[in-house]
Design goal:
The structure is a homotetramer of 423-residue chains. Helices cover 54% and strands 11% of the residues of chain A. The first copy, chain A, has 423 residues and is an alpha+beta fold.
Chain lengths: 423, 423, 423, 423
């Protein structure tokens, strides 16, 4: 893994140099002309030059300008008559020629533009940026839906998992990347460089991120790990400066306590599944004494679910005084068991988004800890609950297949019993 | 560039390690079942495991076995009814949902198999190998045409030019890569390690190859360069041990005297265009005294063209005694001018394959050297002719666009005059 | 240079791993026994193990404990009788055997201890630490002088300049190194990570440090550079956020505005000479438009010199109101010219320590800027003066030889005239 | 370890570049003037320039020219009067000043020349080359002895073991290094690139070399390893193409069958000790199933010893017909046991040079295999005998100390019994 760090450093420097070179080529042409040119140009070098200008334009665009770009792109849609025709011809004669015709006809010309942009230094980042804007604007404009589908499809192919690179994030990592870790941390906020050092440097801390050569300066997803010798119930036992600390050698439990996706523009392209398993096996090799791999996870959708399915109790929660919360322990246990064991969704998947992620990865829900996070934010989303999912490396594949093939959710007997008792 | 050498070394080592790990997973299942499983499986890890077994099967297959594989894959063709339907629906309502339906319907399931194989370590090499067999068998079985078109399409996307890496090939390169240089040299054969050292080590020699991270142990294409202070007319002035040698600093001319494509399975996916320009600009930076970038190239299709268009002279050539050849100098000059200046092809492109390559890249044909290569092989293909194409970096883009947009072939005035004189 | 960054990253990681491994070997033996064992042990592996324990002991020692170590070491002094004998024998017969005897006899056994410590991972750092304590304690204990001389001698040999590695320090540098840049900045203090980013990230900033493989995690010396298109007179024109900024391409002047030695334990072993010339030629290659290489330097010893040689004016300076300082401009010009042009030292070297450094490197003093630094600290040491030294690459070697051979100080005509006028 | 390969590749490239730059500076001065200048010059840059010229001179010198250089250097010998004086003064007053005086006086000025040469790119190689010539000429000229002692002393310090880098040598290693492996193999000759590939590529082969950053293009020592599942008795069972081959996973025994020192100029500076232990622990990590680490070693001094101590039997051996050798089995067993168990040397060390190396490293002699090597060379040196030394990692340190402290030779009971039976 450290080897790949080296590799990535060089890839990063290479990219910066190339981008500097390219950025000199400014352009006065407007974006509409440029997109038209990009799609129609023949020579590869010319395409590269135009792409570079487009990338320059897109960097720093306002929302209105993005809408203009999307509107221009939509003009280059699939010719459905040509496609129907190609389909008919191929049915009659599945020749090489007719196959190619289907491929051409089923590809809107905007995809040609995307492909050409992607071949430039910095092009992939530009497209990821484009898609994050597309996602934001899509809510108000259905037309952008097909553009998003198309771009997601292409990004999925380019972010080939074979090229994902795991990097250890530590106090030796570059300030530039660390700055992004501070920015992207989505679960337990990092408020300063000092706090960041506390998260990375102590011996009982580990942190790993996935990177991709197409976008080497941007972490795609990262996970923060605490080394302990027990399964934690409360987030303070992990984050507090006064916590009990163990040496790497004493620890037997790796706790994944924060997982953050970094790129909105890659939503729906999942890396977390691979990340956790990779990190677990990486840690296992490095620290053979590790026996348990668990999470300490929030329950973000619980209060919303309560609002909908158990409005009375939801009401109670909203009104209770902070000092009285403890009195709700048993009721909370009951409802949370129901929340996790049963599904109220049409697709039968777990009610909780985090549960869908971990159970989908092949983990098991092993315990529910009421009042595990005392923050106001945690109270408002998950009634302060934190739960542990366990990754047993030897069972992860089977559970993963069970989940995806047969919608089986792996939940510990105790929690199932509790839910059954209520039903 | 040297940085990327470092990077590649690590990528290579990484790949070898991973492949070793995966190769342990043997399988008793037959290839038919495996391909079916691969297309239908849900979980990503299962897909990876099956792919690995398929890769193991394919490595070392006989021709019959390849035909079996291709026949199985063809069963997973496009459902044209679904595609026509999807096209109709999208015409009526270009929604995100309908867009995705077109994408699904226009993708034969064999492409799913290819995608999954490509995510494994060693998967890309396996697919390149598959395609080289497909190309060989396609001649006798038209059915394979669509499979080839599909795979070529996918390989083109994966061999993204943004990831091509130029490496200097020298006597410090690994024996494993050098062995392949010996094997793949297609223009002027290298008969031993001693001869290889003569091609790489002297100060007036350079060699560069393109590699791609998807297949880091295999050069895609390489070019051998001689540093001189004149434009050479004969291949002996480059290859002979007794040649006049210049130091790097004295040289003003870089001669590309041998360009070899290495991967049959990537035919039709062009890298040479980029390679020559990249190498020229690399050399320019390294040796600012270089002023001319030329080739010394064979004329492989000349005798075939003569056979067809000037059978009398073709006959003369076939019968002439080796000692009398010199007497044909003027006639050869005439016919070769015609050969290069006019096109006898339907598409109007140059008659000569090598001319199509260099003129298409933006070079100019500047001179024709009769008897430039005294070997029997050169006599039989190009009547012993060698020609020089010149790459002028500041004009290469314009000529490249002219060629591809308007079929303009850049040929020196002298040669044009000669051809005109005859007409 | 970027290549060496890569190299160093790996060296650093390697070192950390090895140190972790070694640190496990704890020891109960006291330091006296350990040092005795280290000097007498035969086997190399045993020596390594003992060294490791000594390194563990030394890390975190108090002043008293250091004194104990030094006292123990002093017991292993040169046997002068043996040395005189060896010298006599060699005079009589300069044989190989007798030569070796001189070498043995002239080497105190404490040097054997130092050598063996130096072969351990982390050993060099330990010895540099040892020497910084030696220097501190030497002031009160003359006995430590010979130990310091011996260790300095050995460190000089080990910090072979052939292995010095120049690294660009930027916002992409690791947080661990950057933290040390904040700590070691000795000229213009860096008060926070935000300020550090201001020093490193803007396009008109550069920073370079020297590292050595023997101590890869510690910068030895670093220089901060401002790109400008004029020779600056005031430090504000460099450090203020509201300064005029130029692009790298517009700049024609590189200003070395802060040079900090980082390792007390390496005092007297000069790296700065090499650093500035290396950085200048590095910048010249990267930015061919750069024409001037100058410093903006403090004048740290001016007030002390005034106190001694011109007590009346020194008195005036001490008493003047901050708002009246401007009125002293001419007198300051006079005295500062005298200060720089004449030497009041026995060795005839420049009065100013910074002048000794830059003139000794082959630079020329080109201008004196009164009130160039408005800070209290600058007022108290150099009466607020800042000066410019210029490095002309083509003259640097000659001036360097002139300085060291003939004590010639390169100072501009204008300043010399000014001083002459007074005399 | 692979990381260090990467590092080394970059160090190598760096060195080549720098050497090219420096080599331009030619010189007309003769070597005598240059050496004088080098010793007297003050400025560091001037010293560097002169050193570079000297290096240029030395590269390609004849024996006579080397003698000239050595004669010049000898003029800069130790001033013994100054040294005696310094010694006396230090005895009277062990001040810092007097310590430095001893250091100066005990250092002949030729060492200053060596130090300065060593700071240049390529300087270390030059000095190693110098010493190999010194060793050759020393036999005929005793005067060179002290020069050799001095240079050896300095090289020992520079080739700090902390910087030794282990590299795996494989078919992926650069042709340039592999060419040197062919050249330096001293035990079982490699006659061609094809044979080299047979030594490196099969799964049951490993090869490792030590490199040092001071001379990164030159292996210092390398060892060839065969993976087997038995302790071999004959060299054919290792080298023959028809041998039984095992996979890496099946093997339980690593056989070090060839160890070659590469640099004559580093004789007496031992790396082999470290190499074997490092390789053994490297292999142990990589292949946890390995249980035995043994050698299959020649017995190079046996026949010479016989000639001296048992001339009758030596005579028999010389005269016996090749087909009758087998009849001597028992007598050979007897004499070889004596040869290994007893010492006929004044220092009491083993009679056999290879035994001194392995037993000194902490190995044990476990078996003697008569007729283990059928070659004529092996018959003439060791009567065709091959022996096995065993490295037991947990005992190696203790045996190493025993050997060096108390001259205890670790030899198996069986062999001791055999020798005792005879005595």
């Amino acid at each position: 893994m450290t080897i790949m760090n080296v590799v990535f450093d060089t890839v990063r420097k290479q990219l910066k140099r190339t981008q500097r070179l390219f950025n000199k080529q400014n352009s006065k042409k407007n974006i509409k002309t440029l997109i038209g040119d990009l799609i129609s140009v023949k020579g590869e070098s010319a395409a590269l030059a135009i792409s570079q200008q487009i990338i320059g334009h897109i960097d720093g665009m306002t929302q209105d300008q993005f809408e203009e770009v999307f509107t221009i792109l939509l003009e280059f849609d699939i010719d459905t008559d040509a496609l129907s025709n190609a389909s008919k011809n191929y049915k009659a004669n599945p020749s090489k020629y007719n196959f190619n015709k289907i491929k051409e006809a089923s590809k809107p010309n905007w995809e040609t533009a995307f492909e050409r942009i992607n071949e430039c230094p910095g092009g992939t980042s530009c497209l990821v940026n484009l898609r994050s804007n597309l996602i934001a604007l899509e809510k108000n404009n259905n037309n952008y839906g097909r553009l998003d589908a198309s771009l997601k499809n292409m990004l999925t192919a380019w972010f080939n998992k074979g090229f994902l690179v795991l990097e250890e994030i530590s106090w030796s990592t570059s300030a530039e990347i660390l700055e992004k870790i501070i920015e992207y941390e989505a679960v337990h906020e990092i408020s300063s460089w000092v706090e960041l050092k506390h998260r990375l440097e102590p011996e009982d801390r580990e942190c790993f991120a996935y990177f991709h050569p197409a976008m080497p300066n941007e972490p795609l997803i990262f996970v923060e790990v605490a080394l302990m010798n027990q399964v934690p119930e409360k987030i303070e036992s992990i984050l507090s400066q006064g916590r009990v600390r163990v040496t790497k050698e004493q620890s037997d439990t790796a706790v994944f306590y924060s997982i953050s996706n970094c790129q909105v523009g890659l939503s729906g392209i999942s890396f977390g599944n691979f990340l956790i398993k990779r990190v677990a096996s990486e840690l296992q090799t490095k620290l053979p004494n590790l026996k348990n791999f668990v999470t300490l996870s929030p329950v973000p959708n619980f209060r919303i679910w309560l609002d909908k399915h158990h409005p009375d109790f939801a009401e109670t929660l909203s009104n209770i005084d902070v000092h009285e919360r403890q009195s709700l322990l048993e009721t909370l246990n009951t409802y949370s068991a129901l929340y996790f064991v049963n599904s109220d969704r049409d697709d039968g998947l777990p009610n909780d988004a985090v549960a869908r992620f971990h159970l989908g990865n092949g983990a098991q829900l092993i315990s529910i800890n009421q009042f595990g996070d005392g923050s106001q934010k945690a109270w408002e989303s998950g009634a302060g609950m934190m739960v542990n999912y366990e990754y047993i490396l030897s069972k992860v594949e089977e559970r993963h297949e069970d989940y995806h093939r047969e919608n089986i959710h792996s939940i510990s007997k105790e929690i199932r019993h509790l839910a059954k008792a209520i039903n």
